[in-house]
Amino acid sequence: MSKKVVIVGGVAAGPKAACHLKRLQPGWDITVVDQDSMISYGGCGIPYYVGGDVSDEAELRSTSFHMVRDVPFFADAKGVEVLTRTRALAIDRQNKKLRVKNLDSGEEQELAYDKLMLSTGAAPFVLPIPGADLDGVFTISDLHKAIEIKKRISGGKIGRVVVIGGGAIGIEMAESFADLWGLETTLVEFMPQLLPKLVDADFATMLQRHLEEMNVAVYTGEGATEIVGDSEGRVVAVKTPQRTLEADMVIMAAGVRPRSELAKEAGLAVEPWGGITVNSRLQTSDPDIYAAGDCIAVKHLVTGKQTYAPMGSLANREGRVAADNMAGIASSFNGAVGSFIMKAFDRCIASTGITYEAAVAEGFDADYSLTAPDDRAHFFPNSASLALQLVFDKRTRQVLGLQGFGMMNDSISARIDTAAVMISKGATIEDFMMAEMAYAPPFSAAIDSLNAAAFVADNICAGRMRSVSMQRFYAWMEDFSSEPDWVVLDVRHPKEAGPFVEKFGADKWIAIRYDKVRKQHKELPTDKTLIIFCGSGNRAYEIQVFLDHLGQHNSLVLGGGMKVIRWIGAAWLPQL
């Protein structure tokens, strides 16, 4: 028996559900409604279109076999009717009808449905500040605005850009402006760090330093209070409490909010923060209405709480699950762990699960291992270091999250993707220690960096390794009086350690090479706390074990070592 299915929203989840459902039920009547004229495009690719990695906007709307996904494509190739420039106005749940309006003609009509799906997406958050409506202020909300942004820049009209918002989209846009176009680019973030809630402070600082090295000015802990215009209504500057930043263009990338007004007005259950409430089959509180994509709330598989995860990758999977269930095939979307990855010039940063800060806030008995291994066999050409932070619960040994920072290659994504699958299944430190990773020198070390991060976590849980955080170490380096009994034991090569001894003095920076400590350990003070320091933390841990064996338990290891410090940067570093 044929059924009518109406889908509201034609960007990611909607088209995926429509096409999959048509394959499952070829005789069903499926209609997609979208208020835009452009549909089914890769919104996450907009920064790369602006930045030139994607040369033509049509590529964002094309299939892998180079057919543009427009209305004729869906009708002819997929058998799906698409009504563009058509806004959904209201849902009549009792009579199962959707009232819509054609935005060009103004005509309204009612579409009957057996099953309705909402994939209304998300709307950019527009800061409630003066000047937000000036000419030259853009949100990254659709392809039309991206085309206009690129048109203005390529026309030579823009020299200075201010990006408001230090999330992923804001950073990607800043890179696009500074890298391809060579524009004077400034990034302003209200929170104390970039990528708030996605990574911990050390990783955000590594990213910020790299952006600054690539000529992007970054100001964190500053909120935009006003966008200033000229007499003709064009943007000329952005004000914060600390400064005024001149600008020919402003990108407002202050996050997005779920578009759930249609659901709320229809009486469907909606979370207090706006996400449409769905079950694992992606049914709303009305069993004949489904929802998927950036408009819904999803269960976080670590915390068990409802959260917001506006990602194109999730939207596509959700669209498939919703289509399965509408077709009568039992299928579940159980939730997400919040996996994230992004490129920033020559670097890559990523995370999955929850941060250490979030884990503490959620009540876990949380700790983390910070490591800086090589991304492939150390002897292989072009091997480079990466930073990994494995967050775990000390009581249950459950792994809660992983963060990575390193070169722009495959090394971070391989570990984050592996961790995402394992964390979603409740994996423990033991599972990560024994995870089988494909090995060849061009791809990894014989002891994979993911295994190594878990080995360190195991040592911490077992009490074999005592560590000090980077933040606490940095605070001491800024003020030695904060921990008057601390002294660094630097076990690196004398050529590496020498400049530090020269700058800080032998009373604060003791240099004994790693392979000499066993013979010279009696030279070490027993009335001081030794901060054992090396390139990444591995040699430091070995020395701590040796000193513990001698009964000298007055030491802490600086995990990540000099590698992480160089990525973070510091004014106190000697000029080498």
Automatic annotation (TrEMBL):
| Residue ranges occupied by any Rhodanese domain in the UniProt entry | 512-566
Q: Which PANTHER family match?
A: NAD(P)H SULFUR OXIDOREDUCTASE (COA-DEPENDENT), PYRIDINE NUCLEOTIDE-DISULFIDE OXIDOREDUCTASE DOMAIN-CONTAINING
Keywords attached to this Swiss-Prot or TrEMBL record, sorted alphabetically, are:
FAD, Flavoprotein, Oxidoreductase, Redox-active center
The highest taxon in the source lineage is Bacteria
**UniProt keyword Oxidoreductase present:** yes
Q: Which Gene3D superfamilies did the record assign?
A: FAD/NAD(P)-binding domain, Rhodanese-like domain
- What is its cofactor? FAD
Molecular function via GO: oxidoreductase activity
Q: What is this protein called?
A: NADPH-dependent 2,4-dienoyl-CoA reductase, sulfur reductase
The similarity annotation says: Belongs to the class-III pyridine nucleotide-disulfide oxidoreductase family.
Q: Which Pfam families match?
A: Pyr_redox_2, Pyr_redox_dim
